[in-house]
Specification:
Elements: E1 5-13, H1 16-19, E2 23-32, E3 51-60, E4 64-73, E5 76-86, E6 95-103, E7 109-121, E8 124-133, E9 148-158, E10 163-172, E11 183-191, H2 194-200
Antiparallel strand pairs: 1-2, 2-3, 3-4, 4-5, 5-6, 6-7, 7-8, 8-9, 9-10, 10-11
């Protein structure tokens, strides 16, 4: 994204049989230099760190996936949690996802987002929900949501095996302060090159 840049190291471990969690990720890095996109000019940040992060994720049975995160930026810690649950018996939706955060240092606050999804056709999946991000969260959030209360909807269309189209729209609601992107509409085309590369045999999994 174009909010900032990060230089550092990240380690991800996937060994659920030994460590309980399906995945554990740790990051130690410097986040900043918003006006310097050239990575070579930022390599001197490798011996600095103002961003620390630990993320864990776990599948619970066949229905649910949960995750938790601790992140600290310039001494301000934030906790994040998320859960996604499959609920096919409801018929009208396939799954529901709830995400929330608590900023536990500095200007303390809380925010969340909830989204439901439904595949209505083998080529079409719909989703939508509501997000409430506090006004002091800062600029390091997804551009679609940034800050404030917003309702949103999206549609994903599988055009071809490797080609997907997405339509996303959101509307800010009931905010008592100025925000950017009062209304946002995204039209996105995504092409996955990997299936075609595999067919060419360029990258083969060793036996």
């Amino acid at each position: 994204d174009n909010d900032a840049f990060i230089v550092g190291a990240r380690v991800s471990i996937k060994s659920p049989k030994r460590l309980f969690f399906d995945e554990i990720t740790g990051t130690l890095a410097y986040l900043g230099d918003v006006n310097e996109p050239d990575v070579f000019r930022r390599l001197d940040r490798l011996d600095e760190s103002n961003y620390h992060q630990v993320v864990v994720a776990k599948k619970i049975g066949k229905r649910a996936t949960v995750s938790g995160e601790f992140a600290s930026l310039s001494g301000i810690a934030t906790l994040r949690q998320a859960v996604q649950v499959k609920v096919p018996e409801l018929k009208v939706i396939d799954s529901v996802r709830f995400e929330n955060y608590q900023r536990v240092e500095g200007r303390k606050d809380y925010g969340y987002a909830i989204q439901v999804d439904k595949r209505v056709h083998k080529m079409l999946a719909l989703g939508g929900g509501f997000a409430d991000i506090d006004r002091y969260y800062g600029g390091l959030n997804g551009d679609r949501f940034n800050k404030g209360k917003r309702i949103f909807a999206q549609a994903k269309i599988d055009i071809l095996q490797s080609l997907e189209a997405e339509v996303f729209i959101q509307q800010a609601v009931a905010n008592g302060y100025s925000i950017s992107n009062d209304v946002r509409l995204d039209l996105v085309l995504t092409y996955d090159l990997l299936p075609d590369i595999r067919k060419l045999g360029i990258f083969r999994t060793p036996r």
